[in-house]
Amino acid sequence: MTTAIMPGCEPYSFVGGPFGVLVLHGFTGNPVSMRPLAEACAREGFSVELPRLPGHGTTLEDMMTTSWADWSAAALAAFDELAGRCDQVAVVGLSMGGGLTALIAESRPHVVGCVFINPWVNPLNPELLDGLSQLIEAGVETIEAVGSDIKKPSTSELAYNATPLVCTKSACDGLTLVRDSLAKITVPSLLLTSRIDHTINWERGEDIATKTLGPVEQIWLEDSYHVATLDNDAALVESATVTFLHRVFGA
């Protein structure tokens, strides 16, 4: 039986012009966090796909049956489908969606540009990974939630209310390979970084600036936490992203 999608967490698709934008949400989140940005891209006339990653936007139990292999396969399939009907495609990702953005750019050379918003591309340090493994071995399934880190009052991304540890370990394993291959990214990137982020330390995104081989423009977000796409700097995130996309598409 298919698990029902939470209201508002549905994927988003817009058929526009020959330039495509793949938009990817983060770990334990769902399309809610990226919907306004996806719609901003659609208003510019771009073709847009915002998929719901497997196990997200339904139930925590559903997510616990999925892994990095499922999320990465879904992201790559969405890119391939969009690239099959567009002349050029760029990728935009928040948090783990940023890690998936890097994966796509590493494995699909026809990506023309990447937008990384508080990206998770650097897995946990060895000590934390060891602690994570010990908790899993002890039978601990979840820890406190990491979603909805938003400074703006009364704003939520409808993320899960807990963090599944086996899924976290799977993400870290996948991101290790992504981080080790960042030098394969040679296209332009836009890196949007919150000064204060309670989910992903901003230093974890600095590998985008230091290890990729394409030009990187970094913009600091001074009034937002992790989910900057729904926070006080959302308008800046949208305008900077749209400007960057027009530039890489040559539109």
What does this structure look like?
- The chain is an alpha/beta fold and 251 residues long.
- It has a single domain, classed as 3-Layer(aba) Sandwich (Rossmann fold), CATH 3.40.50.
- It has 8 helices and 9 strands.
- The protein has helices spanning 35-43, 60-63, 68-83, 96-107, 126-137, 165-180, 206-211, 234-249, and strands at residues 12-14, 19-24, 47-50, 88-94, 111-117, 142-144, 162-164, 189-194, 216-221.
- It has a 7-stranded mixed sheet, sandwiched between helices.
- The radius of gyration is 17 Å and the shape is globular.
Number of domains: 1
CATH architecture term: 3-Layer(aba) Sandwich
* CATH T-level topology: Rossmann fold
* CATH C-level name: Alpha Beta
Q: What is the assigned CATH homologous superfamily? A: Alpha/Beta hydrolase fold, catalytic domain
Care to give the gist of this entry?
The chain has helices spanning 35-43, 60-63, 68-83, 96-107, 126-137, 165-180, 206-211, 234-249, and strands spanning 12-14, 19-24, 47-50, 88-94, 111-117, 142-144, 162-164, 189-194, 216-221.
